[in-house]
């Protein structure tokens, strides 16, 4: 696959837009200021970007310097990133939820020279560790009145982003030629960003992604999803510190010329969807599960005729979808019934998303098959993709016109994906975009990949790099999967695999997804490695629990970590027993404990991408887990 004639550096994207796609006066970004959505044109953005670049050059920033960002999504992230990218510096984004210790480690490991800080809370955290980071020369708060939050001496200079932009404007003429020269000197092989993966074990590792990695991943993804166009509006709410949102929203929009609107927060996302009326959104499986839960609850609440219409409509939607997916034309009766279902039920749900969604892309974890099918029944296309930070990230994504629910789609152009035997290391199959066959199925094993998407390596960690990328150039994902109907299907993480006392392999993700079908259950953490049977820590669905038992907020604020109420445990146990029938006997939950609050990043129990840290959780709750294997089974 030839990408040679495409833009091959990140700062090349925006310049290509104003030359070949949109006039400078066209809206590029949109964000809410007080109660009003404000558009920012390409011309306004480029002026701000160039001003920041001029200032950075003025303070001595050079090609290859690492510049950190710890800031929420918004125009300031884009300005600063584009400004540093076009002078050859390296974006080192930090998740806002990380601990001070992790922040300090990343700043020192990367040798970050500056850090852009998004709000007073994060600013205070940065100030606590700034003096422990000798390479840090500037702390740049992106908010007003930062002075009142400084209560101790800091070695690094503190200057607001507003001041940076104002001073930079006076420096543009002086540095305009240097900015152009710097931008044109960037090679596709140069480092564009360091993204630190916290992982479920070990210290953070800085993934080195080049301009070639990122830009080629965009062009390959656009070959796979052909329906993105320059008039699309993306609503961005997933963190730009994560490579999924950076590639699948930010860089895709830069390549095509789409408008990016920034959601105010996750809490206000539903309102923002109605206001912005996006045509495309990237999301994570858990959000889609919550939308499904709420839609089901709203549609069936109170029973009666309304609930019957809702259930009937979903059934018609399913028949209509399955007929189309089988390559058949729905008959007149089914088509009329589907139009009625659209009018009575589906359109009302779609209106809550703004009513213009062409599709959503789900990433960051496996999407349960039933969730994808639910949205498909409504006529809302959810395309599941797959990849890792180390793969830029996209390795595969479902095609618009050939979707297989429960899979992560076809391999993107320009890469090879193999399935390798975990024990013998035999490669069962190697598939490419061109080798796709809709009836192909392979054996299960570790997913490996090589090609343009694979990272340059881990920063300062040659040994870990050598383990991850073998001598033949294969990156070992650590994910277990297979090819099903020509698409990649993820089974689980290799490190997550449980081997019970009888030698049976249990992959937690599909088992957990089975129990997550219950509207009573928000999360499941499976236990059972080297044990005779499976147990679990259950996170209840808070809304369902409150409604069923008339619980007040104080109940969830109690200091006891687990809920021992017999009625609540029996209520959840009913669904666990019922859903266990869908699983093999050795996969079924035999006992469980109900946790009062979800696992949290603050407590170090999950990663910023919401993956459970298995070793941390098992160690932290070891006594409780041991009790599960002593008590009578709850779910038998």
Automatic annotation (TrEMBL):
<dbReference type="Pfam" id="PF23562">
    <property type="entry name" value="AMP-binding_C_3"/>
</dbReference>
<dbReference type="GO" id="GO:0004467">
    <property type="term" value="F:long-chain fatty acid-CoA ligase activity"/>
</dbReference>
<keyword id="KW-0547">Nucleotide-binding</keyword>
<dbReference type="GO" id="GO:0016020">
    <property type="term" value="C:membrane"/>
</dbReference>
<dbReference type="InterPro" id="IPR042099">
    <property type="entry name" value="ANL_N_sf"/>
</dbReference>
<dbReference type="InterPro" id="IPR020845">
    <property type="entry name" value="AMP-binding_CS"/>
</dbReference>
<dbReference type="Pfam" id="PF00501">
    <property type="entry name" value="AMP-binding"/>
</dbReference>
<dbReference type="GO" id="GO:0005524">
    <property type="term" value="F:ATP binding"/>
</dbReference>
<keyword id="KW-0067">ATP-binding</keyword>
<feature type="domain" description="AMP-dependent synthetase/ligase">
    <location>
        <begin position="31"/>
        <end position="459"/>
    </location>
</feature>
<dbReference type="InterPro" id="IPR000873">
    <property type="entry name" value="AMP-dep_synth/lig_dom"/>
</dbReference>
<keyword id="KW-0436">Ligase</keyword>
<protein>
    <submittedName>
        <fullName>Long-chain fatty acid--CoA ligase</fullName>
    </submittedName>
</protein>
């Amino acid at each position: 696959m030839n990408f040679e004639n495409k833009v091959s550096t990140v700062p090349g994207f925006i310049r290509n837009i104003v030359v070949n796609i949109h006039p400078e006066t066209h809206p590029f970004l949109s964000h809410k200021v007080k109660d009003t959505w404000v558009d920012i044109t390409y011309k306004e953005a480029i002026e701000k970007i160039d001003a920041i670049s001029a200032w950075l050059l003025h303070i001595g920033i050079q090609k290859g310097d690492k510049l950190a960002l710890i800031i929420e999504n918004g125009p300031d992230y884009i300005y600063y990133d584009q400004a540093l990218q076009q002078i050859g510096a390296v974006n080192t984004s930090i998740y806002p939820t990380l601990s001070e210790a992790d922040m300090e480690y990343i700043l020192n490991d990367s040798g970050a020279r500056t850090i852009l800080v998004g709000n007073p809370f994060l600013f205070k955290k940065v100030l606590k560790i700034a003096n422990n980071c000798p390479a840090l020369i500037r702390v740049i708060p992106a908010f007003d009145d930062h002075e009142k939050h400084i209560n101790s001496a800091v070695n690094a200079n503190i200057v607001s982003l507003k001041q940076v932009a104002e001073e930079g404007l006076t420096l543009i003429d002086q540095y305009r030629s240097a900015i152009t020269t710097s931008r044109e000197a960037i090679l596709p092989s140069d480092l564009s960003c360091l993204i630190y993966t916290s992982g479920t074990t070990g210290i953070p590792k800085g993934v080195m992604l080049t301009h070639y990695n990122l830009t080629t991943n965009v062009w390959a993804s656009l070959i796979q999803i052909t329906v993105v166009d320059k008039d699309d509006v993306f609503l961005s709410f997933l963190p730009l510190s994560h490579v999924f949102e950076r590639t699948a929203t930010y860089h895709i929009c830069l390549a095509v010329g789409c408008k990016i609107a920034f959601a105010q927060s996750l809490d206000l996302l539903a309102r923002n969807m109605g206001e912005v009326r996006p045509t495309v959104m990237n999301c994570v499986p858990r959000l889609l599960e919550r939308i499904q839960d709420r839609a089901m609850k709203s549609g069936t609440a109170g029973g009666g005729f309304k609930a019957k219409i809702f259930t009937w409509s979903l059934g018609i939607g399913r028949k209509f979808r399955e007929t189309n997916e089988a390559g058949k034309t729905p008959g007149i009766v089914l088509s009329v019934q589907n139009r009625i279902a659209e009018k009575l039920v589906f359109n009302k749900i779609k209106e809550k998303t703004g009513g213009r969604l062409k599709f959503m892309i789900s990433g960051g974890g496996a999407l349960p098959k039933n969730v994808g099918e639910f949205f498909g029944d409504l006529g809302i296309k959810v395309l599941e993709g797959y990849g890792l930070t180390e793969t830029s990230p996209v390795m595969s994504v479902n095609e618009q016109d050939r979707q297989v629910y429960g899979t992560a789609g076809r391999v993107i152009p320009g890469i090879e994906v193999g399935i390798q035997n975990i024990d013998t290391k035999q490669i069962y199959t190697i598939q490419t975009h061109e080798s796709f066959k809709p009836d192909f199925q392979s054996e299960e094993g570790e997913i490996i990949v090589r090609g343009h998407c694979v990272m340059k390596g881990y920063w300062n960690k040659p040994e870990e790099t050598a383990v991850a990328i073998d001598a033949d150039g294969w990156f070992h994902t650590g994910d277990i999967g297979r090819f099903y109907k020509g698409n990649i299907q993820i089974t689980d993480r290799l490190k997550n695999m449980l081997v019970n006392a009888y030698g049976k392999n249990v992959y937690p993700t599909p088992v957990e997804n089975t129990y997550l079908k219950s509207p009573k259950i928000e999360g499941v953490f499976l236990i059972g490695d080297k044990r005779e049977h499976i147990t679990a820590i259950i996170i209840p669905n808070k809304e369902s629990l409150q409604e069923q038992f008339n619980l007040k907020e104080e109940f969830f604020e109690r200091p006891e970590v687990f809920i021992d109420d017999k009625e609540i445990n029996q209520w959840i146990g009913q669904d666990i027993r019922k859903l266990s029938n869908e699983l093999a006997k050795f996969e079924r939950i035999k006992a469980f404990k109900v946790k009062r609050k979800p696992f949290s990043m603050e407590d170090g129990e999950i990663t910023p991408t919401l993956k459970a840290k298995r070793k941390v959780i098992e160690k932290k709750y070891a006594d409780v887990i041991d009790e599960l294997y002593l008590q009578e089974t709850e779910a038998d």
